[in-house]
User: Fold this.
Amino acid sequence: MRIAIIGSGNIGSTLGVKWAAAGHEIVFGVRDPASDKARKAAASVAAGATLTTPMHALASGEVVLLAIPGDAVAATLADAGAALDGKIVIDATNRFGSPVVNNLAVIAAAAPGAILYRAFNSLGWESFAEPVIDGVQVDLLYCGPDGPTRSVVEQLIAAVGLRPVWIGDQQYVTAVDAVGQIWIALAFGQGMGRRLAFKVLT
Assistant:
């Protein structure tokens, strides 16, 4: 599967490495494909990754991960509506300090035909790089539509080494956002550090 990762920071590059190792083709969409940061992200993918502009990446990816600053989403997707029709788009962005932390409404406005999921927003990238802590697999809580596309998202989460925990459809996005806010409060407010994660026990 060809995955377009918009952004080449810690989250995007770490997930790119994991997904490439699972056999997926990775294309990074970045503002400046010639930048050192972007080249480093592409070089970190063992199988190699394509570097291009966000628009070209959005058009070519079968699945799209948004891993850019939350306030950059609207401008990035301004002309991307048709390119995202019928595609899975995963919102990993955060707008901390805003009344709404996620960008699902922004994405839906720009690309009403996209299939939206909220995932990879509630943990530090370190848990994506090393998804086991003291022998316990880290859980990733996410939300989005049920059905065949959900299976694709779960496969991508599992390919990172995380255990996917589906909260429900998009009406539960605030619950997923709250997990991220709890992570921030504990990791920084309580000084527990970035190697903090969650486990759902039943």
Remarks:
- The beta strands are 2-6, 25-29, 50-52, 63-66, 88-91, 115-118, 132-133, 136-137, 139-143, 163-168.
- The CA atoms of residues 4 and 61 lie 5 Å apart.
- The chain has a mean pLDDT of 94.
